[in-house]
Amino acid sequence: MTCRGRCIATARDSISTAIPFCSLHYGTMALPNEPPKDYQTPGFPSLNIQTLHDNTHDKRFTLYYILDVWRFTLLWTIIIYACFHLAAVLIAMFNHGWKKSSWKYLWAVPIVYLVMAGLEAVLAGSIVGLVLGAVYSAGYYEMNTWIPCTWGFINVLVLIISSFSIQGGL
User: Fold this and answer.
1) pLDDT tens digits along 145-155
2) Where are the alpha helices (DSSP H) in the chain?
3) Peptide bond preceding 45: is omega within 30 degrees of 0, i.e. cis?
4) For 14-51, how does the pLDDT look when each residue is reduced to its tens digit (9 = 90+)?
5) 28 occurs within a structural domain
6) DSSP helix/strand/coil, 20
7) Into how many domains does the chain fold?
8) Cα dihedral across residues 123, 126, 129, 134: positive or negative
C-alpha cells in the first residue's frame, strides 16, 4: 500500500509475512474496511450533501487515515471558532458606543479575539481530532466527512456552555 504515493513502509507480523503499512498514517483507519484501490483522500471540505452514507464507488466522502481525520477536525474547528468569535466581537463593538476616543484602540479587539480563537481551536481541534481518529480506528469504522464538521460545532458549543458561570458546571 503506498498511502497516496507519499510513503511506503513494511512491517513483519508474528507469522513473518510482510504487511504493508504507512508509517506516516500508521496504517489505515479500519482493517476490515480497506479503502478502495482508487481511493484518494477527499479535498477539504468535501461534504456529501445528498446522504450521510457514501455510496460512491471510490468513497470520495470517506476518511480512512487518522491524520486526515485530525486535519478535517482541526480545520472545521478553526473555521467555526473564528466565525463565533468574530460574531461575538462584532456584537461587542456595535454595543460599545460611538465615542471617537474609544475607537483609537478598539480596532485591536477583533485581532485579539481571532488570535485567541485560533489558539483555542488548534488545541481543541487537535485533541478531539486525534481522539476521534483513534476511536474510529479502534472500532474499525470508516468516517464520513460530516463527522469532523459536527465535532467542530460540538467544540464551540462546549466553549459557549463553559463560558457561563453555573454552579456545578464545566
Assistant:
1) 888 889 999 99
2) 66-96, 103-106, 108-138, 146-162
3) yes
4) 444 444 555 445 544 445 666 667 777 778 877 777 66
5) no
6) strand
7) 1
8) negative
pTM for this one?
Answer: 0.70
| Of 40, 43, 80, residue with least CA distance to 64 | 40
Measured distance between the N- and C-terminal CA atoms of the chain, rounded to whole angstroms = 44
Residues contacting 5, CB < 8 A, separation 6+: none
Expressed as residue numbers, the domain containing 88 is 37-162
In a domain, 17, yes or no: no
Whether 8 is in a domain gets the answer no
Which of 9-18, 51-60, 61-70 bottoms out in mean pLDDT, i.e. has the lowest?
A: 9-18
Chain CA centroid to CA 145, Å = 10
- Counted residue by residue, the chain has a size of 170
Buried b (16+ CB within 10 A) or exposed e, 69-98: bbbbbbbbbbbbbbebbeeebeeeeeeeee
| Radius of gyration for the alpha carbons in the chain, expressed in angstroms and rounded | 21
| CB 153, CB 83: distance < 8 Å | no
Structural domain contains residue 94: yes
Distance of CA 14 to the CA centre of its chain: 35
Q: Please state the rounded mean pLDDT for residues 76-98.
A: 88
